[in-house]
Amino acid sequence: MARLDVTETFHSFMFPGHMHTQDSLNYATNFKFQDTDTVIVTYPKSGTTWMQEIITLVLNKGNPTVAQTTPNWARAPWLEQCYATDILKASTGPRIITTHLPYHLLAPALQHSKAKVIYVARNPKDVSVSYYHFHKMANFLPDPGTFSDFLIDFLKGAVHYGSWFDHVKGWTSNKKDIQNFLYITYEEMCQDIQGSIQKVSHFLQCPLTEDELILSQKHCSFNSMKENAMVNYTLIPQEIMDHSKGKFMRNGKIGDWKNVFTEEQSRLADDVYSSQMADSSLLFKWE
Ligand code: PPS
């Protein structure tokens, strides 16, 4: 498989070369957003796929047909990935666009845009565990080594897509510069999925009836998405994602880090969090 082991570096950020090129990254950072666009922004493993499913269901009034027949990367493509250009050019209706890019790389393109931006954040301890497991199955990411090694790189930001701290702070501290911005956390979605779907539907100005809300909730549950080949990545060939090494829809809970971190690793992560997030008022649920 071409470029599977290649890392593409762009503005000092590492991206999997398998899906990113200088051209695709330049295309993303110079993208012409439309006011009708909805943009999902996340650091990897923070609830991207879940939000893609929620938005698809909200826009389809709870009808799961699109969610069950079109792969998530085709209905909500990652702006910075090579294949996005063709999908976005061919798209006619309001577009759902996904990105993992940090704020400073996308800010110029988003300036003056009325596109609706939804930022999903997840506590970094759970992100690190989810990302570690994802590295084991995704052959386009480097071998993560032991969790201990990976955690050190993650806390330093020496991983693909850069630092979790910079990503979250970059997007949330500049939210006043984005005309339509919704911040939501993975933990909030876990704890109150109905309220979260309603929040998204209000933000998208796409109100749902009680029945539509219940249908949306049903089809974006972890168990439903786990069985949905359009989002569980089982359509991706084994040489790109090795499902014998793990599942994309893996655990889906808050606080799995407690099963993985040692006390020392937890203290280290807390220390880095305290120093990196000292200037941030964000609060996360950790368990
Ligand atoms: S990626 O690769 O960046 O697109 O990954 P992303 O979709 O952001 O994150 C994957 C994690 O989200 C979990 N997930 C869910 N949790 C609860 N409910 C639902 N419906 C759901 N859908 C996805 C998925 O299981 C990954 O988390 P972990 O902790 O690894 O299970």
Automatic annotation (TrEMBL):
Ranges for domain Sulfotransferase: 35-280
GO cellular component: cytoplasm
Subcellular localization: Cytoplasm
Coiled coil: none
Signal peptide per UniProt: none
UniProt-listed Enzyme Commission number(s): 2.8.2.-
Alphabetized SUPFAM superfamilies for the sequence: P-loop containing nucleoside triphosphate hydrolases
Main location per the UniProt record: cytoplasm
GO biological process, one term: catecholamine metabolic process
Sorted UniProt keywords: Catecholamine metabolism, Cytoplasm, Transferase
Family matches, as Gene3D superfamilies: P-loop containing nucleotide triphosphate hydrolases (3.40.50.300)
InterPro entries attached to this UniProt entry: P-loop_NTPase, Sulfotransferase_dom
Gene Ontology molecular functions: sulfotransferase activity
Pfam family, one: Sulfotransfer_1
Keyword Cytoplasm: yes
Family: Belongs to the sulfotransferase 1 family.
Protein name per the record: Sulfotransferase
Organism encoding this protein: Carassius auratus (Goldfish)
